[in-house]
Amino acid sequence: MTTRMYRLRGNTTLRILVNLALIGLVVVLYLKRDVFFHRQPKPVAVQQAATPKPRPQPTPTPRVETPEPGEGVVDAVPELEPEPLPTATPEPTPVVPETADLIALARQPREWPGHVTLLAATPFTLVINGAAGGKMQVPAGALVDVRKFNGQALELEFKGAIAVVPVAGTDFESRALAKRKASNPTASPTPPMATASAAAPAATPTGMPDPRYLEIDVVRAKKTKDTGSYLNNKKEQISMRVKLRNTDLRLPFTGLKGDIFVFTESSTARGIAKLAIREKFDIDVPARESMEHETEEIVTIYDSYNTIGGYKFCGWTLLIKDSSGAVILKKGSSPTYLENIASMDGMKKNGTYPQGTWVRPGAKKK
């Protein structure tokens, strides 16, 4: 009995274990059914909750709050937009004032103004009979005459007094421009002078300067002396020195001829003259340079009491001629020696000539 009960008890336990094993196998097969039967797992649809679309809100204007003294950092600093870069503004083209080409203007005397105004008080030299005779101060604002212009300086005259003044010391340039516009109102303005780096090579100047740029100075080289034999006898050593100066800045004087006449007058027969010296010489003067010519020396004796006779120095005439023989400049010891230059061309040295051929009749000789 006891043994049968043990057998029954053992069979029951075995059945329970077998059942549990079967149950476990069924569970495993159920869980692994996709693997054993090659089935794809179904995707799990996840339904997202619909989010309501927010309403557009106006952009708030950022406000910068200034912290009170003692407070901490401001809660929110609005983001500032970057400032636009400044746009470069092109500089306006400078207006170049119209200027005159003084070098070219120097060779065009017709375009010179006849008068200029002094911008500052200027000393003038009085000239009496060709010699300096003192100084006079001409105030600023005075209107003076223009005699010569060499491109840099002016020779001015005021009541018989002479002065050389730089162009900048007068209103010469503005007056010259005004005169040019008045004579040719449709002419285009004078182009501004180019800078040295951009300037074209200067052309070699050609032609002849204006004759007024040739300054003439004639002086007597020898003086009168007593002979020592008689108190009334005078001995004269006569020679003339001619100095020519070219005041033009670029152009030379070439191919010119000088013709100088030196007269002596009879001490007993007034009005009768002898041509004591006549010399012709070549004139070639480079720009801004000078040349000199000294005549031969002659000796004459005359009686100062007008009893014995003889000839004494009385004056001279200088003619400057171009290559064609035309007289372009003339100068004399006095204006009366220039009134009969047409008759002088046929005169010969040591020839005697009555008054009226060498000087105006009745003229006061010097």
Keyword list:
alpha+beta, 17 strands, single chain, Immunoglobulin-like, 366 residues, SH3 type barrels
Topology record:
Elements: H1 2-31, H2 33-36, H3 102-106, E1 115-117, E2 122-128, E3 131-138, E4 143-149, E5 153-158, E6 161-166, H4 172-183, E7 214-220, E8 224-226, E9 233-238, E10 240-246, E11 253-266, E12 272-285, E13 290-294, E14 298-303, E15 311-321, E16 327-332, H5 341-344, E17 352-354
Antiparallel strand pairs: 1-4, 2-3, 2-6, 4-5, 5-6, 7-10, 8-9, 9-14, 10-13, 11-12, 11-15, 12-17, 15-16
Name the CATH superfamily classification of the domain at 211-354.
Answer: Immunoglobulins
Percentage of helical residues?
A: 10-25%
What's the number of extended β-strand segments? Answer: 17
Specify the oligomeric state. Answer: single chain
Spatial order of the strands forming the largest sheet: 1-4-5-6-2-3
